[in-house]
Amino acid sequence: MRATDLCPSPHMEAADLGDKDVKVTIQGVSFDEVGEEKKTKGIIHFEEFDRGFVVNRTNLKRIMALHGPETNEWIGKKITLYPSETDFAGKTVPCIRVREKKHAET
């Protein structure tokens, strides 16, 4: 068991992907309060995961490049998520990124 299973995050984390790329299908988009500051942020929901993915500006731009600016048109579309790292508050932390390549629709 992973230690993070003892106190799971309400949203997806890089550890949820293991060390591999994961192809996911967009199920919907919503808003939720995130973090200690309770900031409202966009959340993307996938058929393959029970928890939502907090979208940031970098990943939003990549999804828009793949599937356009209308979130209603994203439903049923596929993207690939992969674990990476980013700088946050002076530390290098794990994150989730979106691959820039488009998939053949299946």
Descriptive terms for the model:
106 residues, mainly beta, five-stranded antiparallel beta sheet, 1 helix, 5 strands
Description:
- The protein has 106 residues and is mostly beta strands.
- The protein has one domain (11-98).
- The protein is 10% helix and 40% strand.
- The chain has one helix spanning 57-67, and strands spanning 22-34, 39-46, 53-54, 78-88, 91-98.
- The chain has a 5-stranded antiparallel β-sheet with strand order 3-2-1-4-5.
- Strand 4 (78-88) and strand 5 form a beta hairpin.
- The longest helix is centred in the middle third of the chain and has 11 residues, at 57-67.
- It is globular, with a radius of gyration of 14 Å.
- It starts with 21 loop residues before the first strand and ends in an 8-residue tail after the last strand.
Topology:
Blueprint: E1 22-34, E2 39-46, E3 53-54, H1 57-67, E4 78-88, E5 91-98
Antiparallel strand pairs: 1-2, 1-4, 2-3, 4-5
Taking the sheet with the most strands, its summary is:
5 strands, antiparallel
Overall morphology? globular
Question: What is the H-and-E element order?
Answer: EEEHEE
Estimate the strand proportion.
35-45%
Mean pLDDT: 91
- Number of alpha- plus pi-helical segments: 1
Counting structural domains, the number is 1
Computed CA radius of gyration, to the nearest angstrom: 14 Å
How many strands appear in the DSSP assignment?
A: 5
Q: Helix share of residues?
A: 10-25%
Strand order of the largest sheet: 3-2-1-4-5
Determine the structural class based on helices, strands and strand pairing: mainly beta
Low-confidence residue ranges: none
